[in-house]
Write a structure and sequence with these properties.
Helix content is about 70%, strand content about 5%. With about 500 residues, it is an alpha+beta fold. The protein has four domains: about 1-125, no CATH class; about 140-290; about 300-390; about 415-490, Methane Monooxygenase Hydroxylase, Chain G, domain 1, CATH 1.20.58. The radius of gyration is 33 Å and the shape is elongated. The two termini are about 65 Å apart. The relative contact order is 0.06.
Length: about 500
């Protein structure tokens, strides 16, 4: 009891250690050891839970002061403090009681996550070129820091009376624009690498280029099998990084245009000074020009939409009194909100469907549940209008979901066939036994019984090994073959 209580109290630390910080080789090796240790402790907790559940007095017993409800042991997962919503599913809700059997399932998921991280670490360490590129990225500023640095450089002071300063500012603008163009190329590389790569290792190269010195860690898989990544305390999905790339591309394009404007103003001021070179310059003003896109916070489109809906809801009485264009805008926002909700729910269904069929074989019912969830998710994605912000993402998801649905549907058919074979074989075995009760019997009766045993054997042998009834079929097959051989011997005699 005491051991289990102590180990459960250590869960927050164990779960938080189940992440992989992408750094140099030595750092990755150290993390593999930490992950191994965490997995071992999680396995120990599961063993103690299994022992606890075997106790005959489970209804009344308790883990120290941990409460139990009804006939199923329950407890609170210890508090882990504030958890970012992006990875709340990794930790669970510490305010809610959880049964010991549910905790066992969660621990199994955490252990599997550890294996996943170890596999990634091994793949990274075995690729020398990848390791070298990761080490190189660590020596460069993150894309965000680089962008902000360029923005600071574009805070131009135009002093119309200082010729040298104006020349210096023009050079400063040109340098900044060159840096922006280089950053633009890097953004294209990051965006295309993350979006189009099928290899996780290639995707990690794009992420590494994005975060640079800031570094990053693989934290969890969200409900859409999308990696959740942390960097300097901030959690992001891969799609969030792509959205950031879009944002930076827009701001870079605007800053390049703005830089042209600044340079034109500076060059005009230079010409004015050259024309009045024989006169004492008159300093008419001191102007500080600051880029408009210096420190805008990146806000996900879904939050912008939600904010718009909040404003519209608060002042809805005004919308009804205004133009049809505003009414149409309200309808579009409502459609947008519905599309985002459907997209998110489809992702959750996909995650649940995928989770259901991990570690096969499974009973037919489980495969059918997964098939149904994929079907629901496909219907939701298919219902998303083209003009919404999630339309493109929904179409891409739809392709994968349809492939998964088809694969699961085929598995359902295989399981159905296997189950039908087993049931038919059992029925034939019963009939064969009935045929030969209370002997002696005519030769024809023995032959009919022999035929039924043969049919039953053929059905069992046709059951695939990876089905849920394959073990039962293997255990039953020798019995049926022995019965068949016995009747065959009787017929021959």
């Amino acid at each position: 009891m005491a051991n289990l209580e102590i180990l459960v109290s250590e869960l927050p630390t164990l779960i938080q250690s189940l992440k992989l910080t992408i750094g140099d080789s030595n750092q990755i090796m150290e993390q593999i050891i930490l992950i191994n240790n965490a997995q071992e402790q999680l396995r120990n907790i599961n063993k103690l839970i299994a022992q606890e559940l075997k106790f005959e007095n489970i209804k009344s017993s308790a883990i120290a002061t941990l409460p139990r409800i009804g006939t199923v042991a329950t407890l609170f997962i210890p508090s882990i403090g504030l958890v970012d919503p992006a990875i709340v599913e990794k930790f669970g809700n510490s305010k809610t009681k959880i049964s010991l059997t549910e905790l066992q399932s969660k621990i199994d998921v955490w252990i599997e996550w550890g294996y996943f991280l170890q596999a990634i670490a091994a793949d990274i360490l075995s690729d020398v070129q990848l390791v070298n590129q990761l080490n190189s990225d660590i020596n460069h500023l993150s894309l965000r820091a680089k962008f902000q640095g360029i923005v600071e450089n574009l805070k131009i002071n135009l002093d119309c009376g200082n010729y040298n300063m104006l020349q210096s500012q023009i050079q400063k603008i040109s340098n900044s624009q060159n840096e922006l163009l280089h950053l633009q190329q890097k953004l294209n590389y990051i965006f295309n690498t993350i979006k189009t790569s099928r290899s996780l290792l290639n995707i990690l190269l794009g992420v590494s280029a994005f975060y640079g010195k800031s570094g990053f860690a693989l934290e969890w898989l969200d409900d859409d099998h999308e990696l959740i990544i942390s960097s300097q305390g901030k959690f992001q999905e891969l799609t969030d990084i792509l959205n950031d790339c879009d944002y930076f591309q827009e701001q870079i394009a605007a800053l390049i245009i703005q830089g042209d404007t600044f340079r034109d103003q500076a060059e005009q001021a230079l010409k004015k000074i050259e024309q009045e070179s024989n006169k004492e310059p008159i300093i008419s003003q001191h102007v500080e020009i600051v880029p408009k896109f210096s420190t805008q916070k990146i806000v996900p489109s879904a939050l912008l939409i939600a904010s718009s809906l909040l404003i519209l809801g608060f002042g809805g009485w005004k919308i009804r009194e205004q133009s049809p264009q505003l009414q149409q805008m309200s309808l579009s926002l409502t459609q947008e909100e519905s599309a985002i909700a459907n997209f998110k729910f489809a992702q959750k269904l996909g995650m649940k469907a995928a989770s259901l069929v991990q570690k096969p074989p499974h009973p037919l019912k489980v495969w059918q549940q997964a098939e149904n969830k994929w079907h629901q998710a496909i219907n939701l994605l298919d219902s998303i209008p083209n003009e919404t912000s999630v339309s493109d993402r929904a179409k891409k998801k739809l392709v994968y979901y349809q492939i998964n649905y088809k694969s699961i549907s085929q598995r359902v058919l295989v399981e159905k066939k296997a189950l039908a074979n087993l049931e038919s074989a059992q029925k034939l075995a019963m009939e064969a036994n009935l045929f030969v009760q209370n002997p002696p019997h005519p030769l024809l009766v023995w032959q009919q019984a022999q035929d039924k045993w043969q049919q039953a054997i053929n059905l069992l042998e046709a059951i695939p090994e990876n089905t849920s009834v394959s073990i039962q079929a293997k255990e039953t097959l020798p019995i049926y073959k022995n019965n068949y051989a016995a009747i065959r011997q009787i017929i021959q005699n």
